[in-house]
Amino acid sequence: xxxxxxxxxxxxxxRMGNKxxxxxxxxxxxxxxxxxxxxxxxLGQLLWVVAISYDVRIDLRWSSFGYGLGVGLGFMQGKWTSxxxxxxxxxxxxxxxxxWEAKGAKLLTFYTCFALGLPILCPFLIRSxxxxxxxxxxxxxxxxAMNVALLLWVRRMPK
Length: 159
Hints:
This protein is mainly α. Helix content is 75%, strand content 0%. It is built from five helices and no strands. The protein has helices spanning 2-16, 31-53, 60-93, 105-125, 129-155. The chain is elongated. Mean pLDDT is 82; it is low at 1-6.
């Protein structure tokens, strides 16, 4: 079984050369999946704003600020991920390297864990409802923009 899969992989890698095609990407990197994540994150943000707008104690400017910051940092993360995949995914498929060995993979992982992990810790440190509303909006913005950046990258690839 192992030799059969390695033969199939070597045959596929010989045919594909060093060019990355959409069909080689995993399921979570397909266009319909990106669209679903983008729509869900925008819908989640809209529902979140509607829900928190009923509480007069919450300043919605924090939600706008958090969403904008999330969009900026998320798009940056998506561009960084797309560059990493563009440079190293074929090598990973050919089993020449693992993604952890790819140039920039460790720093990208640290950045992503910090960018999404910090908001998880903030509710324990911050007791302000305004800031908490902004943190949730930040997460929606980050995930949505990250998927937009990856979607734009995948759309440029040949099928």
